[in-house]
Write a structure and sequence with these properties.
heterodimer, A: 204 residues, alpha+beta, Alpha-Beta Plaits, 2 domains, 3-stranded antiparallel beta sheet, 7 helices, 24% helix, B: 563 residues, Rossmann fold, 3 domains, 6-stranded mixed beta sheet, 5-stranded parallel beta sheet, 28 strands
Chain lengths: 204, 563
């Protein structure tokens, strides 16, 4: 079967309009001064640029995003983790490794009894499933928004307790919902308990 | 045990609508016959009544109220001596109810209520469930709910029953009573009084089983606390059993405190090696590290208990300086080379020129293989006695685990160590040219380093000592937790133990390399497994043969042989 090639009109034979038509989207963006909604506020200073300058710039991570798990501190910068090892137990890829404190408990404040001696997360193993956050009875581990965990060797990517605590920092989520009469006053679990015990009348 | 032969009449009771025949009398904690209780009857029917204070080997006190059940009994007999009957002629059952409030069911405590014929036990009825919920709510009133910190979490009855029988919410709004935390009760026990549910199991154990009336409850009402007498310390050789029987995390072992969560521990059935009693234990280990011993129930040996000194005698297994490489005179070598050299050396040895000092802490199988070697050379064999202080319960004088086995197999005589002087003289006179030493430091028992220079010294041990330092061949062996085998306890009970850990470095189970040596030297063959070796030994050693032992028959609790 022979296909007859359609004859081009003179307008089509000009070619220029077709090229311009092909570049329509590109040119619209090229001359556009409108801010792109995709990159949000980050784009404010580079409003005309369409390529994000990753990794200098990072995209705003949406709520509920599951990034790297870090240990968070409470409002008084105390370690919240009590080394119950439930996260270690539940972790599907066995990325978490906790060394319990032993008889001393290693607690660093009044009222607290126990905290981990070592707390390692192997970020190469972590699959960001969020089970650790879900299982934690002390709300001490949260999946924050870090997503690009890079390093130069494997050892560097096993984060220890100090690193996890400093990266996690004081995350508001960790205590924002502990409210009393509508005022967020933090957990102060240990303080409260110690105070309660002190206030108790001593009957014998 | 005592009442096994007495035939006991049975009575029929109904548990959850199902008729079961149960004996009228059962053994109590002391082994005496007592009327069967509701809790025991339900257990026989296959239904577990939750309980805290009840323990089969402790006196019944009935103070936790957890085993409350709703029951119904036949009515009081009338003037004709017959119980009231239904219209169809069957015995009428009256469910228990409050006297002046017939709508309200009344519970009885299962642990202390004896059964009567035709009794109906409503173990899973809504009434019973409601009673359990309420009891649990009361028990949890002052409980701190600090499971994430508590060492008992994972094996805590309060946790288990709360999940199974409890309710999700508590109606209690007031502040919880705060009690002393981390109290040092004794050198091995820490008490968290807040977690205590006052079941008094620990008090009864130490008073009635150990005979050391050391614990009691002080203060009143909600402030009730377990305590020792002022200035006294809870310090007998059985204190750590209270940690096992404590249904909650109130009593914790200092040794195990905050060491590892229990759900990570792999449990391996084993035998305690601290003395000749052979208490059955469970090894808790994780990733090749041992964390604890727990007693394993065996009524023929240790019941539910074990002593503290035995329980804490495990740290040597994980010691850093464990022997882990095979060495000969030239230095480090490997199993094939070392075993070939030793076999060649032994094959050329004359009869009577070999002496063997075995250890009465070795397994029956190893001793049997050593006795095979000894027979081949007409070698003098003996072991070394080890004596300690006995106590009134389980700890005995003989600190060797397997003295009885060594005697039955013929490695040593009734008087352990009596032939050591003959071996010494043999070395002095030059008659003994090769000395095989297993697990003992002979330099401490009269055969000093200077004498040992005169002989070819083949040593197998676990930890370094003076003898291993000067050995011509040093073969690293395994701790009992790293191999399988059997021990014969002081009363002649042959019990097996399982492997929990991997041995360090090149260390190998003694029976494996001894078997190869025995094969090379004497031609003994065919036992690639410990089962085969045991069955072979059971066919040759008279006492084992008479008892018709096989590895499979031993089971978890072992078998007795005639001494």
């Amino acid at each position: 079967m022979k296909v007859e090639r359609a004859k081009l009109t003179w307008f089509e034979r000009l070619y220029i309009p077709s090229i311009l038509n092909g570049f329509k989207v590109t040119l619209r963006h090229f001359f556009s001064w409108k801010r792109s909604k995709v990159y949000g506020d980050k784009q404010s200073s580079y409003s005309a640029k369409l390529t994000m300058q990753y990794p200098e710039e990072k995209w705003p991570v949406p709520d509920g995003y599951r990034g790297a798990p870090y240990l968070v501190k409470d409002e008084d910068a105390n370690t919240k983790c009590v080394s119950c090892q439930l996260c270690e137990f539940v972790c599907p890829p066995k990325a978490i490794r906790i060394t319990p404190p032993g008889q001393s408990g290693e607690a660093d404040r009044e009222g607290a009894e126990k905290m981990p001696k070592e707390f390692d997360i192997n970020m190469l193993r972590c699959i960001y499933c969020g089970f650790c956050q879900e299982v934690c009875p002390e709300e001490a581990i949260y999946l924050l928004k870090d997503y690009a965990i890079t390093g130069e060797n494997r050892e560097e990517l096993i984060f220890n307790k100090e690193k996890l605590l400093s990266l996690g920092g004081e995350d508001k989520r960790a205590y924002a919902h502990h409210t009393q009469d509508g005022v967020t006053e933090g957990i102060k679990k240990w303080e409260k308990k110690t105070q309660e015990a002190k206030d108790q009348p001593a009957f014998h | 045990m005592a009442a096994k032969d007495i035939s006991i009449e049975t009575v029929t009771v109904k548990v959850d609508g199902r008729s079961v025949e149960v004996p009228r009398m059962m053994l109590n904690w002391e082994g005496n016959l007592e009327p069967t209780t509701v809790l025991q009857a339900c257990k026989l029917a296959g239904i577990e009544i939750p309980h805290y204070c009840y323990h089969p080997k402790l006196p019944v006190v009935g103070n936790c109220r957890m085993c409350l059940v709703h029951v119904g009994s036949p009515g009081r007999p009338g003037p004709d001596g017959k119980s009231p009957v239904n219209e169809d002629g069957t015995t009428k059952i009256f469910p228990m109810q409050l006297p002046y409030e017939p709508q309200t069911p009344r519970g009885v405590i299962g642990c202390a209520t004896t059964i009567v014929p035709d009794m109906e036990i409503y173990a899973s009825s809504p009434e019973t469930k409601e009673m359990r919920e309420s009891v649990l709510e009361s028990l949890l009133i002052n409980h701190p709910l600090d499971c994430s910190i508590c060492d008992q979490a994972g094996e805590c009855k309060l946790q288990e029953y709360s999940y199974d029988h409890g309710q999700a919410e508590s109606g209690f709004e007031e502040f919880k009573v705060h009690k002393p935390k981390a109290v040092d009760l004794g050198p091995r026990i820490t008490l968290d009084a807040e977690r205590c549910i006052l079941c008094t199991r620990c008090i009864r154990f130490t008073k009635d089983i150990v005979g050391d009336d050391a614990l009691g409850i002080v203060n009143r009402g909600g402030y009730n606390t377990i305590s020792t007498f002022p200035g006294e310390s809870f310090n007998n050789n059985y204190t750590l059993n209270t940690v096992d029987i404590c249904p909650v995390g109130a009593l914790t072992s200092d040794d195990f405190r905050f060491q590892m969560r229990v759900w990570f521990l792999k449990e391996t059935k084993s035998i305690c090696t601290d003395c000749g009693s052979g208490c059955n234990v469970m090894i808790g280990s994780r990733e090749n590290k041992m964390y604890r011993y727990e007693p394993r129930q065996n009524d023929a040996v240790n019941g539910h208990w074990m002593c503290d000194s035995g329980r804490l005698n495990y740290k040597w297994i994980g010691r850093e300086d464990r022997l882990s490489s095979i060495t000969d005179v030239k230095g480090k070598t490997s199993w094939p080379i070392a075993l070939k050299n030793i076999s060649d050396h032994l094959s050329n040895a004359d009869k009577g020129s070999v002496a063997i000092v075995a250890s009465a802490r070795q397994t029956n199988e190893e001793l049997h293989l050593l006795s095979k070697l000894a027979k081949h050379f007409d070698a003098i064999t003996d072991s070394i006695p080890r004596k300690g202080k006995a106590d009134h319960l389980m700890m005995i004088e003989d600190r060797n685990t397997n003295t009885t086995g060594a005697q039955l197999i013929g490695v040593t005589s009734k008087r352990v160590g009596s032939k050591l002087s003959i071996i010494k003289k043999g070395i002095e006179s030059g008659k003994v040219k090769t000395l095989i030493v297993f697990g003992e430091d002979v330099t401490k028992h009269g055969i000093d380093a200077k004498l040992l220079e005169k002989v070819t010294l083949i040593v197998s041990d676990i930890l370094p000592n003076e003898t291993t330092k000067i050995a011509d061949f040093l073969l690293p062996g395994c701790a009992h937790a790293e191999k399988r085998g059997t021990f014969t306890n002081v009363k002649g009970r042959v019990q097996k133990f399982m492997k929990a850990l991997e041995p360090p470095g090149d260390a190998l189970s003694e029976w494996e390399f001894l078997h190869e040596l025995a094969h090379n030297v004497t031609g003994l063959d065919g036992f690639k497994t410990i089962e085969g070796l045991f069955n072979h030994m059971a066919g040759e050693v008279k006492a084992f043969k008479d008892a018709e032992l096989t590895w499979a028959k031993l089971g978890d609790h072992g078998l007795d042989v005639e001494l």
